[in-house]
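Supplementary Text 2. Reproducibility record for the structural model of the 362-residue chain.

All settings were left at their defaults, and a single model was retained for analysis rather than an ensemble. We include the record here because the model underlies the residue-level annotations in Supplementary Table 4.
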Amino acid sequence: SPLIFAHSFYNSKDAVLMSGVIIASYFSLKFLKDPRSKKALIAGIFCALAITIRIVGVFVPVITFLVLIPNLKADKVKPLLFYIFSIVVFTFVLWPLLWKNPVKEFTNSFNEMKNFHETSSTIFLGKTIPGNKIPWFYVPFWMMLTIPYTQVLLFISGVLTFFKSPVNNTYKLFLILWFVLPLMTVIYLKSTLYDGWRQMFFIYPGFILISISGLKYILDSRVTVIKIFIITLVYINLAQAVLFINKWHPNQNVFFNILAGGKAEISNKFSLDYWGLVYKQLYDFLSDFDGRENIKVYIDTFPGETNLRMSKTPQKFVLTDSMVNSDYYLTNFRSGVVLEESKKVYKVAVDGVEIGAVYKVN
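Retained model, structure tokens:
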């Protein structure tokens, strides 16, 4: 996925949490397969690590508990209790915030997670909406449009295969809960989400594993034509994703699949470069375009300030507090301010979708 690949460079929370959840889930599945104290200890340590990255990592032990409890036998009670004990102990040890008052601070963190106090808005389906007012289908809709289309199709196939047979397999049930439980929780709690679905990246591995189940079901089919068609489609889409990353780096984060529609629709309907990565390119262009030693620029988003430090000549630029006192206006279109086309001296586009521009204002 170009989106996940891009976030792996700079997203220090959501991408890291996804990795933590993968590792914790792997060892929790090993514990479920063979519930012994040693495996409970290892799984508990990695679950604690996931929780300390972001508290939503608690979903891993919750899912493990839900999978194990229906078929819990007497010989599994002790390992399960040791698993829970390990998580509690190592979460406390690895999370300094809890050292003074564990119960109070953990509860505060959990409540903060449920209703994160963030004033950011997001552009979704052509409307600018606050992060705490998003519709219930926000996350699945974003996923459907920003994940390579073959993964989406194979996911649907995987879900259908799960419904064809009873969910009595530990691995299968774990995957379903990995994807569904967090999704249903944020919908039920009406949690604050913004900037795409990055806060929910940790369910993507579950999505992928369900997709692989769908692929396996198709490959086990006796219809050779269908198998050849699906394999060809997967390779073509994989090649498209790799080529997209190579062509549009470092802006491959602005990735939409064919289900999103045309370029004009994407530009007007969704938040694009919400990280403001494009600002570095805008500053670097302006440094070459304008030879003066002091260039007054106006920016109206925080990433515009942070990216200035990473530009090749930060000393040339003077940030102003208004467009009136500036030579240029730099934007990633997050604020909604768009000037006349005649004032535009430079733009950055990804696959025809404009994500940033420099305007000459004075």
